[in-house]
Amino acid sequence: MEDMSEYPLELSGDNVPMVRFMNVTKSYGELVVLDKLDLDIAAGEMVTVIGPSGSGKTTVLRMLMTLETINGGVICVDGQPLTHMPKGGVLVPADARHLRKIRASIGMCFQHFNLFPHMTALQNCMEGPVQVLGLSKQAARERSEELLDLVGMIDKKDQHPSRLSGGQQQRVAIARALAMRPKVMLFDEVTSALDPEVIGEVTNVIRKLVSEHNLTMLMVTHQMGFARDISDRICFFFGGRIEEQGPPDELFANPQRDRTRQFLSAVKEAV
Amino acid sequence: MSFNWRWDFTFEILPRLLWATLNTLMAAGVGYAIAVVLGLVLALAQRTGFRPLTQLAREFVEFIRSTPLVLQIFFVFYVGPQFGIRLSPWVSGMVAIGLHYSAYLSEVYRGGLESVPKGQWEACTALNMTSRQTYFRVIIPQALPPSLAGMGNYLVGILKDTPMLSVIGVAELMHTANAIGSESYRFLEPYTLVGIIFLAISLPTAGLIRLFEIWVRRKLGMR
Ligand SMILES: Nc1ncnc2c1ncn2[C@@H]1O[C@H](COP(=O)(O)OP(=O)(O)O)[C@@H](O)[C@H]1O
Ligand SMILES: [Mg+2]
Question: Is position B33 within any domain?
């Protein structure tokens, strides 16, 4: 068992990051997927995770969304522990109630959209605000229509997902996540399941979010040009560790590590 | 061997059989209503992750599915009183048939619930929904269409099993036909009519279920 007394009950001070991974370990049986990961994301920062398949990129996002439990370490969101809660002066694993409280700050978009097929685009966006946040139908509708407008989907608000293209579904999924007013948005390869000609309509929405909204974002993508354009920082993952990280211009133009160079040149050839 | 069908006798017994048909429909309907609700409880209990509950539900389903319905009917009616549960033949019959089919329906629901993709659960977590909201707003509505065909089969099944209730004296169709037979020594007409009546109910029911399934899918925006 890990000695939890090494971890603070909450983060305080001037520079509390929006997200902090402290010593986070994740394994599936024998397979260690993430090994003592330390990662800070500042409020308002846009961080992109790149790296070869199987390097643990998705796992990082899923742990933060509480879709996976962790085997060691602590994750904090906005200064509060997410995976744990204070009890009797130490951190103990979070219960369902604590998870719900802290998880409210986080939203996620998935590779395969995961829209609710039995609801229209508008209903998909209103579901969380009405059921979870307790907004009135009217208020939820206004908020959702505003966001569907932002992602350019207001014309299709009464369509079910089965009637929408992949790019359209992903834009609705982004609106649905934003309707919960998260502080942190997670994007896991949101363009990977899309036809090449519609990738732009989704990346443009994310560009708009970066320039017009003060969200903290953590994104996994294979669109290197896009990542370079909009990120404040790039983290290159390799074998469950951060092999190298830095501002996009430095990391792409002048990678320090062999593995980073190999990965970037392999990606360049593939394009 | 002579085959003689007597129309006058047929029309004489028809009202009595039609009256018994109402009883049959009532037994099947109430039994099915019990099964629909209890089956869902059993299916959800098996997914709670709370071991004792999961185990209990699983054992119950296995027990029901591996013993004959007629035994279960006798059990509720004759053994129930020993535990202080004294029920009329009618109520015993509907309870037994409801319990019996709840086990089968729980398996139908289980299949339906498992057919909902994992990503739907994850989307619910990402929207911070409670497990109650997740089930009732997202998972069950999607598990319903793929369950409807199985639910429909068991509705017809429960109807066809109502004659078993005659063993404890419930005056449903079969019981009435038997009574007519032993009073008049004529069996051809009552049993033939019973067959025709069952056919006349089962066939349209199956068709209606199919239409209902299409309607639900359309209503939920799924194809
Ligand atoms: N549920 C799971 N069970 C076992 N292994 C898993 C599971 N999910 C992911 N993995 C493994 O964890 C490693 C990292 O996966 P992932 O985070 O999805 O990588 P990436 O997104 O970088 O491609 C991979 O080796 C993968 O096979
Ligand atoms: Mg991945």
Answer: yes
Q: What is the pLDDT of residues B89-148, one digit of tens each?
A: 999 999 999 999 999 999 999 999 999 999 999 999 999 999 999 999 999 999 999 999
Our count of domains for chain B comes to 1
Tell me whether residue B2 is in a domain: no
What are the CA-CA distances from residue B78 to residues A84, B65, B75, B100, B166 (Å)?
Answer: 55, 20, 5, 17, 14
* pTM for this entry: 0.88
**A64: Cα separation from own chain's centroid:** 8
Q: Give the integer Cα–Cα distance in Å for A153 and A125.
A: 11
CATH of the domain at B73: 1.10.3720.10
Helix or strand run (H / E) with residue A60? helix A57-64
Does residue B1 sit within a domain?
A: no
The count of CB pairs under 8 A between chains A and B is 66
For the segment A162-193, what is each residue's pLDDT rounded down to a tens digit?
999 999 999 999 999 999 999 999 999 999 99
Residues in A 104-133 with any Cβ partner in B closer than 8 A: 104, 106-108, 110, 112, 114-120, 127-128, 131-132
Q: Which domain holds residue B39?
A: 7-219
In a domain, B121, yes or no: yes
Query: B180-192 pLDDT, tens per residue?
Result: 999 999 999 999 9
